[in-house]
Structure formats: C-alpha cells, structure tokens
Design brief:
By secondary structure, the protein is an all-beta fold. 0% of the residues lie in helices and 49% in strands.
Length: 123
C-alpha cells in the first residue's frame, strides 16, 4: 500500500483548504484511514479517522466542527476539508492506513503512511 498526500499550502487564518490522499495497492475494507499532523517542535497528533463505509468517524477535539474527513472507496482516496483554519493548525499533515482491523487514534498502530503535506496558516 502506498499513500500520496497532496493539497497543502500557505493560507491565511480563516481560510479553507482541502487535503487529498491517494492510495494505491490493496486497500482492505477493514482498513481505517486517518489524518495525523506534526507541528514544528511538537509530537505527532491525531486529527481524524474514518472507516470504510464512512459510518465511523472520529475527530480530535481541536478540529471538531472545523474539519471534515471523507473517503471515496471507488477512487481509493481520503480527503480532509479544513475550514476556519487557525495559525495553530500549521503542521505537516500525514495520511495513514491502519492495516489491521479496528479503530485507533494512536499513530503507532498505523502501518502505512504517506509522505506528508505542509499546511501553513498565517495570522
């Protein structure tokens, strides 16, 4: 499984941005997909996850109500729509596929990772 994230860029506070993650290879219907981020000088943190059907979605408290995760299984893509962006959302964003059954917000349990895309939000 290979993941390719894209869509990052420089925006102003309050703007919106949409990240995409294209997956290639065998993506099992049991795989949860997720977005994580790592801000400068900080630990990686969970952002959002989604199951195959889209019926199970979890957001970090810091982004709930502003970010929306979605997936298109026919196209093997996962997206993260980010609204009302804040300077504290500045980070490298990574998409990940869990590779095993079950939901988790712990990045250590995810087997496959994309290369990351940088989001910079200016104040």
């Amino acid at each position: 499984v290979q993941l390719q994230a894209s869509g990052g860029g420089l925006v102003q506070a309050g703007d919106s941005l949409r990240l995409s993650c294209a997956a290639s290879g065998h993506i099992s219907s049991t795989y949860y997909m997720a977005w994580f981020r790592r801000a400068p000088g900080k630990e990686r943190e969970f952002v959002a996850l989604i199951n195959w059907s889209g019926g199970n979605i979890v957001y970090a408290a810091s982004v709930k109500g502003r970010f929306t995760i979605s997936r298109d299984n026919a196209k093997n893509t996962v997206s993260l729509t980010m609204n009302s962006l804040k300077p504290e959302d500045t980070a490298v964003y990574y998409c990940a596929a869990k590779g095993t059954v079950g939901s988790s917000t712990d990045g250590a349990t995810y087997k496959y990772w994309g290369q990351g895309t940088l989001v910079t939000v200016s104040s």
